[in-house]
Structure formats: C-alpha cells, structure tokens
Amino acid sequence: MPRIPRLERMFVKPNNSWSRFPKRPLPFRMAEWETKEHKGEVLRVTKIKPPCQIPPIKPIKDWHIVRGDLVEILVGPDKGKQGKVRAVARKKNQLKVIGLNCSDNFMPDMGDGEPGFMLNEEPLHYTEVKLVDPATGKPADTIYKFNEEGLKVRVCKESGRVIPKPPGERTDWKSRSAVKEGDLDTKSDAVQQYTYVPSLLLFHEEIMKEMNIPMSVPKRGLERRDLIFMEIESEAFGERPLESSQDQASENSDFGTFGKIAQKLKFW
C-alpha cells in the first residue's frame, strides 16, 4: 500500500479513518449522567396548611349551668338520666356529670392491689344537657332575667319559675368550723386585729424612722404631710388629733392674693 504523503496527512482528512477508540470519549461517558429537561408545568405551593389544625372554640355568651346543678343528658347511652354537675370547663364548652357518661379505663397493678377497670367520667358538650326544673322534675329551657332586687336569676321559659343556683361549696372544707388550728397556723384572734398603720413617709424616711437615724439637714418646721401623718397615727391609737402652732399661725396671719390661691391649690 502506497504511503500517504506528509502534506496530505496534515491537511486532507482520509475517508477511511478508523480507530478502536471513540472519536469523543468524554461526551459519550457523560451522556449517562445527563437528565432531560422537564417541560411540564411546575406545581407551586401557594399556602402551607398546618397539620392538625383545630378550629377555635366559640364561647357561649349566656352560660346557665354551674357546678352542683341537676341536669338531664339528651344524647348517648345515658340519655334521659339525671345527675349533678361535677365540674364545668367554660373555655371548652364542656362539663362533667357525676356517675354518668363513663368509660372503662384499664388500670394496671401499682402494688396496692389487683389490676382492673376504672370508670372515668367523659366530658359532655353544653348543648347535650339541659337544666332540670325542680318543680316539675323535667328538663327545661332557661333564660336570664332581673328580679325586683336587681339580681340576675335563671328563669324557666315555660313555667316562669326561678331556678336558684346551688350554694357554693369550698373545695377543701364544707364548713369552716371543721378546720383545726395547728402549731404553725396564725390564731384567729391575731388575724382579726388591725395592726397596720398607713404611712405618708417616703421609703428612705421609713427606714430612718425604724433605725432612729437623725436627718442630716433638720427641718425648719412641720410640713403638711407630717401633720397629716401625725393625725392618722393619733386616730389609729385612739388619741386626740394634734394641732400644731403652725396651723394656728396660718389661720391668724393675713395671706396675700397669691397666698390664698396657693392655700386652695394644696395637694393634701
């Protein structure tokens, strides 16, 4: 086979050029990693909705049921049964009835006894119960009205009878006489004594009085505030109010026009 001249090899591309390597090895290898351009519509999230979104609870304006009222359940397995209200949650518009609308909860053995089931009172919505009219013993709709004394009372719509509220009970003691005073309790006689004396002194003046610290700059005379303080102290201890010579002199002295105005515009 004749040899190709040097000039032809430099400027003329042979037609039958062949090689065992690809002409462009790098682009062939990178083609495996290329991704096609996505020409479809892009889905954009305009507003993110928070998970488990709970709607706000609208409070009931006229709440007619209080703790201790006799109510009747209108829904559920205990429908038609009556019971007293144990607790009221006005922020959630819910309440609990003693011994009704209960669920069984398994209680494991805590070392005190055998495991078993315990009844738990489930809350009811305000609209699922109704007040019971004490005269008829049936559930009735109630509204608020003002009586002759100007007090706000609950009135039955049908009969017009007043449904009184149950007396409030203490959560710790039903009667105050059942409380026994201990060694660390304050005696009732000491609590009923009036030992506080109101003071018009400033903070630093009270400290100086308690510590018997004399004033660095003595006062030239009693001020109006000092006289009021002396009068309050004397009334607190059952003494006669003191009259200073300064007040007597001010009554006898002849004030000018500005002095009379200043006397009327005094703070005390």
Summarize the structure.
By secondary structure, the chain is of the alpha+beta class. The chain is built from seven helices and ten strands.
Describe this structure in words.
The protein is of the alpha+beta class. It contains seven helices and ten strands. The termini are far apart. It has a domain of 71 residues: SH3 type barrels, CATH 2.30.30. It is extended.
Query: What percent of the residues sit in helical stretches (DSSP H or I)?
Result: 10-25%
The span between the termini is 132 Å
Anisotropy-based shape: extended
**Major sheet attributes:** 5 strands, antiparallel
Give the percentage of residues in beta strands. Answer: 15-25%
Average pLDDT, all residues: 73
What is the fold named in CATH at topology level of the domain at 69-139?
Answer: SH3 type barrels
Structural classification? alpha+beta
Order of helices and strands: HHEEEEEEEEEEHHHHH
Query: Rounded to an integer, what's the Rg over CA atoms?
Result: 46 Å
Number of strands: 10
What low-confidence regions span 5 or more consecutive residues with pLDDT below 50?
A: 239-268
Q: Tell me the strand order in the biggest sheet.
A: 6-3-2-1-7
Helical run tally: 7
CATH architecture descriptor name of the domain at 69-139: Roll
CATH class label of the domain at 69-139: Mainly Beta
